[in-house]
Amino acid sequence: MAKLDELQDIVTQTRRDILRMVHKVNSGHPGGSLGCTEFMVALYNEIMDLKEGFDMDGIGEDLFFLSNGHISPVFYSVLARKGYFPVEELSTFRLINSRLQGHPTTHEGLPGVRIASGSLGQGMSVALGAAQAKKLNGDDHLVFSLHGDGELQEGQNWEAIMYAAGNGIDNLISTVDRNGKQIDGPTSEVLPMGDIAEKFRAFGWDVLEIENGNDLEEVIAGLNEAKSRTGKGKPVGIIMNTEMGNGVDFMMHTHAWHGKAPNDEQLEKALAQNPETLGDY
């Protein structure tokens, strides 16, 4: 269990990073970032086969594409803690001329970021292109992508979902963060999504569900199961249930913290629930 304990320490420190980043500039999206922390930590530290260093070609390694780019705080923290760039650079989040913009971009050359994202609904299309390129190049590595459930209200996703199955893109694992919330309220009120898993299956995907996406062991098991289903003619989809704002009691069970930063008092309360494990930047 030592390995799991180490991963949990990264999860806790990542939550601290997220909270401190958005507090410093009074801007950003902590809710979804906190909800996806276990997933992102597991993906980069346990699941993906990664090379040393970074290049945009990504040949001979697994690739990840973040489609719901507004949860950049968790993405940046995980990349930094993995060694893609100095942890101290997290202090520049959302500042002018920073490489860590509110939504990830590529022109600053930040290691680990392969696409600009934040215009929702486009990430799966990019992931599909990368997955097909790997097949054409004889590269047997996998492509992972992450999407919000509210993001699936964007039409381009469904074109990509149809294309992936229709073309047998079976080296792709796309995860939907189903927290049931978006910036304007519950997804059930803004635009009901119905049964997302059955929608993916109807489009020809192999689908599994992670019941508790905030349980590190369950996330790792689900991602490993998804990997075992690749290469069998179908893209693999994961419907992952998470709690927006997880790990901070007053940010949970509401959509209010989708895009709002904590004040000084709130930050202190939130950090007290996530003790420092790896050292603050």
Structure description:
With 281 residues, the protein is α/β, with parallel strands linked by helices. Helices cover 40% and strands 11% of the residues. It is built from 10 helices and 7 strands. A 5-stranded parallel beta sheet has the order 1-2-3-7-6, sandwiched between helices. Strand 6 (206-210), helix 9 and strand 7 form a beta-alpha-beta unit. Helix 1 (2-25) packs across helix 4, helix 1 runs antiparallel to helix 10 (264-272) and helix 5 packs parallel to helix 6. It is globular and about 50 Å long.
- What is the global morphology? globular
C-alpha-based Rg, rounded: 18 Å
The portion of residues forming beta strands comes to 5-15%
Mean pLDDT: 97
Strand order of the largest sheet: 1-2-3-7-6
- Which consecutive residue ranges, at least 5 long each, have pLDDT under 50? none
Q: Sheet with the most strands?
A: 5 strands, parallel
Total number of beta strands: 7
Q: Could you estimate the helical fraction of the residues in percent?
A: 25-40%
Distance between the termini: 27 Å
Structural class: alpha/beta
Number of helices: 10
Structure in a nutshell:
This protein is α/β, with parallel strands linked by helices.
List the helices and strands and how they pair.
Blueprint (H helix, E strand, L loop, with lengths): L1 H24 L4 H6 L1 H11 L15 E4 L5 H11 L40 H14 L6 E6 L6 H12 L5 E7 L2 E2 L2 E2 H4 L5 H7 L3 E5 L5 H13 L7 E6 L22 H9 L9
Helix pairs in contact: 1-3, 1-4, 1-10, 3-4, 3-9, 5-6
